[in-house]
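Re: [ENG-882] Designed sequences occasionally contain unexpected residues at chain ends

Forwarding the minimal case from QA. C-alpha cells:
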C-alpha cells in the first residue's frame, strides 16, 4: 500500500500540535491549582506515584513499537491477513501485561512509605491513592490500547490526537472544578481513570470504523513470532534505559530530598517535558513515513532526508533551548510562585539536559524505522546502569544538581555518541559518521551563542509578571532565528532543507 507520507505527516503534525496544546498547557493549570489549594506535597506525591508506575510499565517491553514496526511491510503489501494476526497477538500480550503490572503494583504497596523522605499529608491515605493511580495505568493495557497500533502504523495518529484533545479538555476542566469546590484529591485522581477509559473506548470505536477489514483473528507464523521476540528483547533494554532516565529521577529526589523538592523538580521537568512533547510531534508524525521510506527508498536517499530533517529539528531545538533559559524562572514565578524557583545553575543544567536529549531524536526515528533495537542492547544496558549509579551517588551528595548531571553524562556519552554510531554501523553502512558529528557540534556552538546573546538582552527587561514574560518570549522567538539564519544561510544544509520544508508546508 502506497501511503501519502507527506499528507499524513502534515495532518499528524497539525492535529498533534493541537493535542499538545491541550495536554501541555492545561496540566500546568492543574498543577498550579494543586499547589495553591492543596500544597506542593500533594503534587509531589502524584509525581512519585506516576514515576513508580512508569517503572512497572517496563513490563510492556516495547511490544507496541515492535508490533507497529512489524506492520510496516504488510501495510506496504496490502497483506490484511498478517495485520489481523499481528493485532490478535498484540491484544493477547497486552492483556497479560496489564495483569502482571497489577500484580507487581500490589506487591510494592508495603514499601511505599520508604520511598518518601519525611512526612506526607496526613489527610491522605497513600495506599488508597496509589491504588487509583495503579488502576489508571492498568486500564489502558486491559482495554483497547492495542487498537492504537493500527493508527500509528497507517500514519493516522491524528485520530487518536483528536480523541485525546477532546477527552483531556473535559477531564482537566472537571479536575479543576473538583479541586476548587471539594479539595478532594481522591476524586481528582479518579477522573484520571475515567479519562483513560473513555479514550480507550473511542480509539477502539474509530479504529474499527476506519479499518473494518482488520480484526483480531489468525495466528502469526513461528518465524514472525521469533522475529518479534528478538525485537522485543532489544526494546525491553531500550525501555529500561528510558525509565532509568525519567522515572528514577523523581524517585531519587523523593528519597533524598522529600515530596516538596520532588514537586519543585517535577515542575521544572514538566516545563522541559512540555517543550519536548511539542518537538516529539515532529518525530511521531514522520515515523510512519520514514518506516515506509526505509522499505521503498535507497539508503543514500534516506541519509539525505535525515540530514535535512535533523538540521530543521536542531534549529527548532536550539530556539527552544534559548526559550527555556530565558523563560524558565519568570514562568515558574508567575504560575507556581517564588517559593518554587530553583537557582540559575539548575536552570542551565535543565537547558543542557533538554538540548542533549534532542540531539538523538531524529536518529532514533531511523533506529525505530529499521527495527535496530537489538543492535542497541549493550548501549541501553550500560546507559541504564550508569544513569542509575550516577543518580544515586551524585544525587545523594549534590541533590538536584547531581541528579540532572548524572542524566546528562549518560545521555551525551552513551546515548548520543555511542547510539549514533550504531545506526551508521548497521544501516548507513557506507556513510561516514564524521559529517553527522561535525554538524551537531556546529549546531551546539550556534545554540550556545544564541543563548548567551538572548539571555543578556532579556535580562535588560525589568518588567515583572505576564507582561515581562511576553516581551521575553517575543525576543526569544525572533533573535535566535535571526542568528541561525545568519550562521547557516550559505550552507548546503540550509539550501537543501529550506526549500524542502517550504514545499512540505505548502503542498
Amino acid at each position: 500500500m502506497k501511503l501519502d507520507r507527506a499528507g499524513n505527516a502534515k495532518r499528524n503534525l497539525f492535529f498533534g500540535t493541537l493535542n499538545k496544546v491541550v495536554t501541555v498547557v492545561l496540566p500546568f493549570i492543574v498543577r498550579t491549582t494543586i499547589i495553591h489549594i492543596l500544597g506542593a506535597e500533594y503534587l509531589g506525591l502524584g509525581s512519585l506515584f506516576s514515576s513508580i508506575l512508569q517503572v512497572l510499565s517496563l513490563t510492556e517491553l516495547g511490544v507496541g513499537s515492535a508490533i507497529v514496526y512489524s506492520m510496516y511491510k504488510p501495510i506496504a503489501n496490502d497483506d490484511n491477513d498478517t495485520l489481523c494476526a499481528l493485532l490478535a497477538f498484540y491484544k493477547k500480550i497486552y492483556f497479560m501485561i496489564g495483569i502482571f503490572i497489577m500484580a507487581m503494583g500490589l506487591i510494592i504497596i508495603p514499601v511505599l512509605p520508604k520511598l518518601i523522605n519525611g512526612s506526607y499529608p496526613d489527610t491522605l491515605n497513600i495506599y488508597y491513592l496509589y491504588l487509583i493511580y495503579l488502576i489508571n495505568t492498568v486500564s489502558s493495557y486491559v482495554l483497547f490500547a492495542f487498537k492504537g497500533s493500527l493508527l500509528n502504523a497507517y500514519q493516522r495518529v491524528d485520530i487518536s490526537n483528536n480523541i485525546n484533545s477532546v477527552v483531556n479538555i473535559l477531564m482537566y476542566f472537571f479536575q479543576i472544578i473538583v479541586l476548587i469546590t471539594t479539595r478532594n484529591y481522591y476524586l481528582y485522581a479518579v477522573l484520571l481513570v475515567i479519562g483513560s477509559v473513555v479514550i480507550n473506548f473511542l480509539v477502539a470505536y474509530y479504529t474499527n470504523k476506519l479499518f473494518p477489514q482488520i480484526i483480531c483473528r489468525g495466528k502469526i507464523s513461528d518465524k514472525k513470532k521469533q522475529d518479534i521476540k528478538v525485537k522485543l528483547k532489544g526494546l525491553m533494554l531500550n525501555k529500561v534505559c528510558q525509565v532509568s532516565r525519567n522515572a528514577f529521577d523523581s524517585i531519587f529526589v523523593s528519597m533524598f530530598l522529600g515530596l516538596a523538592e520532588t514537586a519543585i523538580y517535577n515542575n521544572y521537568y514538566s516545563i522541559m517535558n512540555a517543550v519536548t512533547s511539542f518537538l516529539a510531534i515532529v518525530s511521531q508524525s514522520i515515523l510512519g513515513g520514514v518506516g515506509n521510506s526505509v522499505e521503498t527508498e535507497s539508503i543514500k536517499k534516506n541519509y539525505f532526508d535525515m540530514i535535512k530533517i535533523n538540521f530543521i529539528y536542531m534549529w527548532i531545538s536550539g530556539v527552544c533551548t534559548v526559550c527555556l533559559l530565558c523563560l524558565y524562572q519568570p514562568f515558574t514565578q508567575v504560575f507556581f510562585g517564588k517559593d518554587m524557583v530553583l537557582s540559575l545553575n539548575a536552570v542551565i543544567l535543565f537547558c543542557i539536559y533538554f538540548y542533549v536529549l534532542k540531539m538523538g531524536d531524529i536518529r532514533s526515528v531511523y533506529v525505530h524505522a529499521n527495527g535496530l533495537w537489538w543492535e542497541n542492547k549493550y548501549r541501553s544496558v550500560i546507559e541504564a546502569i550508569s544513569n542509575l549509579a550516577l543518580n544515586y551517588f551524585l544525587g545523594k551528595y549534590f541533590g538536584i544538581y547531581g541528579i540532572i548531571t548524572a542524566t546528562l553524562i549518560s545521555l551525551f556519552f552513551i546515548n548520543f555518541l555511542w547510539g549514533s554510531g550504531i545506526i551508521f554501523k548497521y544501516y548507513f553502512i557506507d556513510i561516514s559518521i564524521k559529517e553527522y558529528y561535525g554538524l551537531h557540534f556546529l549546531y551546539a556552538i550556534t545554540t550556545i551563542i544564541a543563548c548567551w546573546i538572548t539571555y543578556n538582552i532579556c535580562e535588560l527587561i525589568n518588567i515583572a509578571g505576564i507582561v515581562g514574560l511576553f516581551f521575553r518570549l517575543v525576543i526569544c522567538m525572533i533573535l535566535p532565528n535571526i542568528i541561525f539564519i545568519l550562521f547557516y544561510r550559505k550552507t548546503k544544509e540550509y539550501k537543501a532543507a529550506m526549500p524542502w520544508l517550504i514545499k512540505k508546508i505548502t503542498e
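QA comment: On inspection the terminal residues look reasonable. The first helix runs from residue 5 to 37. Proposing we downgrade this to a documentation issue.
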